[in-house]
């Protein structure tokens, strides 16, 4: 793990990526800081921290796009995967390297806080809470980016996928507001929740079975069918829960509390577990590739 | 020591490797020979734990690569078909990275220095891998496999893309390494396997078609009873003479080499040596034998015969 972490960190600075990421982050965060805090003459930094999350959505994919896709493309993964190290330490080593570069970027916000303190005494605990929140959300973003990078051999595709995934995670609340949670209820207005669910599941199973045999028994079809059963079953049984669940999963909702100066342990744990889940999925993708 | 037992790898319906078994003892160089796409690289990737087999076992010094991958991998040095080099690193940085990656315990400076002088990359030690020629990249790849002094070396087409001088150097090096390592080397270049290996496994379309030492392979496929003779004399008379000899089973006429000089391929009954008899017969009839050789097959012939026309003696395949 140590060897991979060191190599990866160095490679951010032998290629232009590390410099580009840091330069872009410093520049945009400086603009944001100037316009949100300095020009308003306030010691509050929450405006900047809210904007920084959007900036990270754009910049993190650039940071993580090559981590695993490039290894696969150049076949250097053969060297890592045949070395006496576990998949877990490969992924974590790479995560920590990207996370370190991310931290080097985010650390600039502490400088801004010092700049503000030259004018008036800022609320240090709030700023520290903001900072911790941004670090946590960044860790989850980096993990998502590394996961997306494990899915493809192409850096650009990897960046685009992670970009889309991060926007989706950011927008989950909005998606939940718009989604027609009660559409199955409206289809079967006279039925109760139980028969409604049973009918929905039966239809899904039937459709899955038809597709399964038509496509020549592809193993992926039952898996997708199972997921569809869970999702549509939820819609049928308790449609009103869907927006609530999406809201709970929304990165923005979880993050915005930090910028108000609220340190909620559940939100902190949410980001840490999100990072862990995506790193775990990355390991599974690498593992699966060996069996393909 | 490497033991492979009934190894198979299927990609959907395609059988890339189909039930192969072989053993490579300590201090043995095993040549893995086959045309492109025969399943050589797939087998090597399975042996090194890069991909998993569909069924079967691969044991490295008695450790199953699937059951205890980390222990098994620590005993292997692997040079894949394309050396896994990071172009943005110098040779020094790269080898140090590999040293750390393999959690090597040997003294760092002297160990890396030894390897570099062994594969002769001392003078490019501080250069970026990106700027090295193909031959040097291949050597850095080999150096990478040697880091940590593993018992087992698996080299996938180690001499591909090298110039003749480098090829000879690398072969000599592999021979030297073979004295105290178990080496598996794949190639589609037959002379290479012939020059380097103690034991040869021929593989075609995922199956083993022959597994033996080179001498045995030749002996199985050819014998003294097949002769190629160049005789000066009227063709019809020579043929009549050859027909009369009762131990000759078959005679083919080969190329013409001049006025009344022809090449004849003679097949005698199995186990019989007709060279003396042939000499006397020609002398009596006033023909001159200009050349006589037993048509022992080269590895090229063995290879073609095996991959085109089934197996030896209808054996394994």
Draw up the topology in text.
The complex is a heterodimer of chains A (292) and B (317).
Chain A: H1 2-14, H2 17-38, H3 46-64, H4 69-73, H5 77-81, H6 87-106, H7 108-117, H8 124-150, H9 155-178, H10 183-187, H11 193-214, H12 220-238, H13 241-249, H14 251-259, H15 265-291
Helix pairs in contact in A: 1-6, 2-3, 2-6, 2-7, 3-8, 3-9, 3-14, 6-8, 6-15, 8-9, 8-14, 8-15, 9-13, 11-12, 14-15
Chain B: E1 2-11, E2 14-24, E3 29-33, H1 40-47, E4 55-60, E5 63-64, H2 69-73, E6 76-79, H3 91-101, H4 108-119, H5 134-146, E7 152-156, H6 164-178, E8 182-187, H7 190-196, E9 199-204, E10 207-212, H8 214-221, E11 226-232, H9 235-244, E12 248-258, E13 261-268, H10 275-285, E14 288-294, H11 299-308
Parallel strand pairs in B: 3-8, 3-9, 6-7, 7-8
Antiparallel strand pairs in B: 1-2, 1-4, 4-5, 9-10, 11-13, 11-14, 12-13
Helix pairs in contact in B: 4-5
Commentary on this structure:
The complex is a heterodimer of chains A (292) and B (317). Chain A is mostly helical and 292 residues long. Chain A has two domains: 2-178 and 249-291, no CATH class; 183-239. Chain A contains 15 helices and no strands. Chain A has helices at 2-14, 17-38, 46-64, 69-73, 77-81, 87-106, 108-117, 124-150, 155-178, 183-187, 193-214, 220-238, 241-249, 251-259, 265-291. In chain A, helix 3 packs parallel to helix 8 (124-150), helix 11 runs antiparallel to helix 12 and helix 14 runs antiparallel to helix 15. Chain B is built from eleven helices and 14 strands. In chain B, strand 1 and strand 2 (14-24) form a beta hairpin. In chain B, helix 4 (108-119) crosses helix 5 (134-146). Chain B is elongated and about 75 Å long. Chain B starts with a strand and ends in a 9-residue tail after the last helix. Classes of the chains: A mainly alpha (292), B alpha/beta (317). Chain A binds chain B through residues 2-4, 6-7, 10-11, 14-15, 74-86, 290-292, and chain B through 11, 45, 48-52, 70-71, 73-74, 76, 78, 80, 82, 84-89, 93, 97-98, 100-103, 144.
């Amino acid at each position: 793990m140590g060897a991979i972490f060191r190599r990866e960190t160095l490679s951010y600075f032998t290629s232009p990526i590390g410099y580009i990421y840091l330069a872009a982050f410093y520049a945009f965060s400086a603009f944001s800081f100037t316009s949100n805090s300095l020009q308003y003459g306030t010691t509050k930094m929450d405006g900047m921290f809210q904007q920084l999350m959007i900036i990270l959505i754009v910049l993190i994919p650039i940071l993580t796009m090559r981590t695993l896709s490039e290894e696969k493309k150049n076949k250097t993964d053969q060297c890592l995967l045949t070395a006496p190290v576990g998949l877990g330490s490969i992924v974590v080593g790479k995560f920590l390297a990207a996370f370190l570069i991310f931290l080097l970027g985010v650390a600039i916000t502490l400088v801004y806080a010092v700049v503000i303190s030259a004018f008036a005494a800022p609320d240090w605990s709030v700023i520290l809470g903001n900072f911790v929140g941004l670090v946590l959300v960044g860790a989850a973003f980096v993990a998502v980016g590394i996961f997306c990078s494990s899915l493809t051999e192409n850096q650009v595709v990897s960046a685009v996928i992670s970009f889309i995934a991060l926007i989706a995670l950011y927008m989950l609340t909005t998606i939940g507001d718009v989604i027609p949670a009660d559409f199955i209820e409206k289809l079967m207005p006279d039925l109760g929740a139980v028969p409604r669910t049973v009918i929905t599941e039966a239809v899904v199973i039937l459709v899955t079975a038809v597709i399964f045999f038509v496509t020549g028994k592809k193993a992926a079809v039952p898996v997708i069918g199972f997921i569809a059963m869970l999702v549509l079953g939820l819609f049928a049984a308790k449609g009103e829960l869907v927006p609530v669940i999406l809201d709970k999963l929304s990165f923005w909702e979880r993050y915005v509390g930090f910028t108000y100066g609220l340190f909620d342990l559940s939100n902190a744990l949410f980001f840490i577990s999100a990072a862990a889940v995506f790193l775990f999925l990355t390991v599974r993708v690498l593992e699966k590739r060996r069996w393909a | 020591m490497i033991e492979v037992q009934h190894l198979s790898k299927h990609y959907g319906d395609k059988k890339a490797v189909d039930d192969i078994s072989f053993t490579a003892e300590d201090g043995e160089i095993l040549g893995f020979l086959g045309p492109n796409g025969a399943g050589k690289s797939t087998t090597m990737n399975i042996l090194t734990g890069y991909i998993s087999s569909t069924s079967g076992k691969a044991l490295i010094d008695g450790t199953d690569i699937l059951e205890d991958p980390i222990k098994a991998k620590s005993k292997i040095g692997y040079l894949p078909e394309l050396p896994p080099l990071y172009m943005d690193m110098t040779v020094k940085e790269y080898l140090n990275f590999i040293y750390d990656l393999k959690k090597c315990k040997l003294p760092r400076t002297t160990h890396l220095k030894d390897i570099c002088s062994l594969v002769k990359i001392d003078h490019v030690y501080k250069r970026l891998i990106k700027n090295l020629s193909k031959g040097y990249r291949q050597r850095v790849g080999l150096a990478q496999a040697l880091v940590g002094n593993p018992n087992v070396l698996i080299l996938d087409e180690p001499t591909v893309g090298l110039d003749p001088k480098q090829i000879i150097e690398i072969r000599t090096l592999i021979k030297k390494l073979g004295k105290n390592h178990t080496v598996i080397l794949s190639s589609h270049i037959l002379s290479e396997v012939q020059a380097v290996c103690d034991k040869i496994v021929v593989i075609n379309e995922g199956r083993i078609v022959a597994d033996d030492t080179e001498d045995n392979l030749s002996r199985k496929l050819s014998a003294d009873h097949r002769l190629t003779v160049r005789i000066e004399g009227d063709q019809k008379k020579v043929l009549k003479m050859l027909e009369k000899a009762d131990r000759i089973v078959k005679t083919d006429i080969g190329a013409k080499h001049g006025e009344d000089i022809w090449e004849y391929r003679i097949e005698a009954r199995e186990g019989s040596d007709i060279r003396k008899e042939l000499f006397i017969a020609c002398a009596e009839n006033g023909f001159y034998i200009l050349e006589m050789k037993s048509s022992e097959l080269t590895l090229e012939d063995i290879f073609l015969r095996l991959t085109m026309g089934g197996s030896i003696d209808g054996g394994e395949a």
